TrEMBL record:
InterPro entries: Pirin, Pirin_C_dom, Pirin_N_dom, QDO-related, RmlC-like_jellyroll, RmlC_Cupin_sf
Sequence positions that bind Fe cation: 58, 60, 102, 104
Classification via PANTHER family: QUERCETIN 2,3-DIOXYGENASE (PTHR43594), QUERCETIN 2,3-DIOXYGENASE PA2418-RELATED (PTHR43594:SF1)
Keyword Methyltransferase on entry: no
Pfam family, one: Pirin
Comment on bound cofactor: Binds 1 Fe cation per subunit.
The protein, known as: Nuclease PIN
Cofactor entry: Fe cation
Keywords: Iron, Metal-binding
Length: 284
């Protein structure tokens, strides 16, 4: 059984009129290698004729963004030419690699009609050997993501990446990053064995869960030790969990603004390359 080192609280960090809780990094935890950053946007309701999301064109280099659309929609556009509108239940996986410019905005339909909005954005590091890989993007709707029904239907697992219950997932990332979203009815149980050398990412999106005997509620990030394999999870009420695991890269992490590299020199180079137009053209 994995030990629980600490249960961290996400901090309120609104962006314009967007309700946002940041689970990583906070004053109590910097990262869970290779998971670097998590913003939980919403839940909130937008009225008709709204401005939508505030994430206009901005650059990235050196890592990947995985965005989970729980409610509402998300339009992705980038300087490599990828564009898509992903709706509730879908996921966007973007490999920034050597650099691109992208925007994450609401669809025209959402801005016109309003509605519910809730998103998670997770930053996953890339190892040094992949920092300067070619950028890539893939957006999948809910129906394109394998759904597993567990515990007599009380638990639904959306297999985002890796291998869950011997089922292949929707995305095949460059590195062995396993990610899933789990939806629990009250009383639903899920247990899984994860090799002890892998770091676990465990964030409660909604509700109240018991994990290895400890309670974790909405906006809690559970930091687990590397001293066992088993996770036993039980929902004390209807709940949603973002669960991931990976072998840590154990490389230097230098993060500044929208760039995550291995040295300060590489960060300076990233700013220089961006200013010199090497991240592609933005024709948003």
């Amino acid at each position: 059984m994995r030990s629980i080192k600490k249960i961290h609280n996400a901090v309120s960090s609104p962006i314009a009129d967007l309700i946002t809780y940041r689970a990583l990094p906070t004053n109590s935890i910097d990262h869970i290698d290779p998971f670097l950053f998590l913003n939980h946007h919403g839940y909130q309701e937008y009225s008709e004729n709204n401005n939508g999301l505030p994430f206009g064109p901005h650059p990235h280099r050196g890592f990947e963004t995985v965005t989970f659309i729980l409610k509402g929609d998300l339009t992705h556009k980038d300087s490599s030419g990828w564009e898509s509108v992903i709706k509730a239940g879908g996921v966007q996986w973007m490999t920034a690699g050597k650099g691109l410019i992208h925007a994450e905005i609401s669809s025209d339909e959402f801005k016109r009609n309003g509605g519910e909005l809730e998103l998670l954005q997770l930053w996953v590091n890339l190892p040094a050997k992949h920092k300067m890989t070619e950028p890539n993007y893939k957006g999948l709707q809910e129906e394109d993501i394998p759904q597993l029904s567990l515990d007599s239907g009380k638990v639904k697992l959306a297999a985002v990446s890796g291998n869950w219950e011997d089922k292949k997932s929707a995305f095949e990332p460059l590195n062995d990053i396993q990610l899933a979203t789990l939806y629990f009815a009250e009383g639903g149980k899920y247990s899984v064995e994860i090799p002890s050398e892998r770091n676990i990412f465990f964030y409660v999106v909604k509700g109240n869960l018991k994990v290895n005997g400890k309670e974790a509620k909405i906006h809690n990030l559970v930091e687990l030790g590397n001293d066992g394999k088993k996770l036993e999870i039980e929902a004390l009420e209807e709940s949603i969990l973002l669960l991931g695991h990976a072998v840590p890269f154990n490389e230097p992490i230098v993060a500044q603004g929208p760039f995550v590299m291995n040295s300060q020199q590489e960060i300076q180079q990233a700013f220089q390359d961006y200013q010199n137009g090497k991240f592609g053209d933005w024709n948003g």
